[in-house]
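User: Some background: our group keeps a shared notebook of sequences we're curious about, and every so often someone picks one and asks for a predicted structure to add to the entry. Today it's my turn. The entry only has the sequence so far, pasted here. Could you supply the structure so I can complete it?
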Amino acid sequence: MSTDFLGVGWQWPVGTDAVGAIAMTSGVDELEQAMYLILSTTPGERPMRPEFGCPLADYVFAPADSTTAGLIAFEVVRALTRWEPRIDVVDVDVTPDPADSTLWIDIGYAVRGDYDRRNLVVPFYVIPEEADR
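Assistant: Of course. Here's the predicted structure to add to the notebook entry:
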């Protein structure tokens, strides 16, 4: 299957290539960078697109427990379904790390029209000392 429909875009975070031009990325790398950009943008952050993003920042001071994990999974599915039409979200598993205040967001997805399942893992950090106040 051709992945030409995935397009080519600026590498994120923005950088330069060997000749000083804006670094470009394509294919699945571009797709995963776009997904990460959606998840790391707080709604309201972009003046001309106030609804764009995922409200993960709302959970920074929440406890790292199963309730927060379920809410984060819901928000991730909702944001990726709305803002990334090139993928089908298969599942989202949010797992608290018992060693620290990290919630690991494991996103199972498939590129539209392709049955090759892929995963993207995103760390999310909460501040537990602040959650108890």
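Suggested note for the entry: The chain has a mean pLDDT of 86. The chain has one domain: 4-131.
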